[in-house]
User: Fold this.
Amino acid sequence: MRSVVTIRVPASNGAAARQLDLGEGDRARFAPCRCGTCDLDIRFAQGTPWFAGEILARSDHWLVSNLGSGQALLVENLENSYEYLTVEAGRSLVPVPFELSRVGLAGRPRGPKLTVFGPEPRQADLPLTPCAQVSEPRPALNPRAAYFAVLRTLCEPRLRGAPSTPLPTSEEIARRLGSSMTVRAVDAHIEYLTGKLGLTRGCGRDVLVATAIRHRLVPM
Assistant:
């Protein structure tokens, strides 16, 4: 059997971490279990709040179902911490677009999680020829402008780390960008970017950074 989806199961109840390989059409059910006899492919440690789900493997994607009746499941993209989806209780066969994912219980950042390695995404064989009368989209921001350098420097910690990584101050950004950039200029560029992206004045740098990364306005 050729494995198309691989699930890494964390260690629990004294058992070592293990790996579960799924072929086309295989399913794996997961939930907490105290008795050790529940009909599950993956049992989480006792003491974990109740939740249940199922992963279905396909040759070119995988799907997740939330078999619980309470909280949502959280599926995170491990290659981009800003991309995730939630699967509400009772939702079935939700396609997951991430190649490398982590699945756990929403609202429990320290709860048990599964790591899922899905199939490589397919590429379109025949790209659609653009209409001759439709122009190519222009970038929303000018990558050669000084404000773009400020935005890229502001976003760098979040691009390299977790969404909660502290952002650099205006003084730190000015120091990074050299003597031609002042603290006052950094603040002015950030204010300009806030307006250019249609954000509420004074919304804060976290909102600006999250918007820029979500819309891929800065290189990953």
In short: DSSP finds four helices and eleven strands in the chain.
